[in-house]
Automatic annotation (TrEMBL):
Residues 6-116 form the Response regulatory domain. It comes from the Bacteria. One of its GO terms (molecular function) is DNA binding. SMART domains: HTH_LUXR (SM00421). The keyword Transcription regulation applies. This is Transcriptional regulatory protein FixJ. Residues 132-197 form the HTH luxR-type domain. The keyword Zinc does not apply. It comes from Novosphingobium endophyticum. SUPFAM superfamilies: C-terminal effector domain of the bipartite response regulators, CheY-like. Coiled coil: none annotated.
Length: 200
């Protein structure tokens, strides 16, 4: 992790938060501790790597919050003696690394270095895909169909013909779709659809 890096620590265990903060206190890493994702939402950081204790649904909730804000941070998940299935699920949900607790300061620093390197080399493409999918999941089936038509360059009239609905109804679905995606323009919606692998 770069000098004076920022670690966003999310863990509801006070002792573990204190232990991690202490382990990194001698380095150049600033630790911002949060009890849960909701607390983080109230004090959103500007940058950093997230180290999150892998509670049920915590990674998915974090990714959803990041998608809503349009900002992505690399996520490292951790837990005590994680099973391989748990690690795989965390990676599928958006984590770029997983570490077992307890961990030494050296191992933790190495994990943070890996996260910074992976993020730089991949351009955070996997996280962008996961965030885009989280946005797409907010859409109704009809709004997704309209987005699919928009993404391949169809007019409202042609989308309407395809879906057997009026152009005015397409327009309403299109406006709702843009709003739910947090897209200002059609081009933003198309980018999100491409990042979510909805269209090639």
């Amino acid at each position: 992790m770069e000098r004076n890096g920022n670690l966003i620590l999310i863990d509801n265990d006070t002792r573990r938060r204190a232990a991690i903060s202490h382990a990194l206190s001698n380095g150049k890493i600033h630790v911002e501790p949060f009890e849960n994702v909701s607390e983080l939402s109230g004090s959103w950081p500007r940058s950093g790597v997230v180290l999150i204790h892998d509670e049920a649904g915590s990674i998915g909730l974090l990714v959803e919050k990041m998608a809503h804000r349009g900002e992505a941070f690399p996520i490292i998940a951790f837990s005590e003696a994680p099973s391989s299935q748990r690690v795989v699920q965390a990676i599928l949900n958006g984590a770029i690394d997983y570490i077992a607790w307890p961990i030494s300061a050296e191992e933790l620093n190495a994990a943070l270095e890996r996260a910074a390197t992976r993020t730089a080399s991949s351009g955070n493409a996997k996280m962008r895909e996961i965030m885009a999918r989280a946005r797409i999941d907010r859409l109704t089936r009809r709004e997704r169909e309209v987005l699919g038509g928009v993404a391949i360059g169809l007019s409202n009239r042609l989308i309407g013909e395809r879906l057997s609905i009026s152009p005015r109804t397409v327009e309403i679905h299109r406006a709702n779709m843009l709003n739910k995606l947090g897209a200002n323009h059609t081009s933003d919606a198309i980018r999100i659809a491409i990042e979510a692998a909805l269209v090639a």
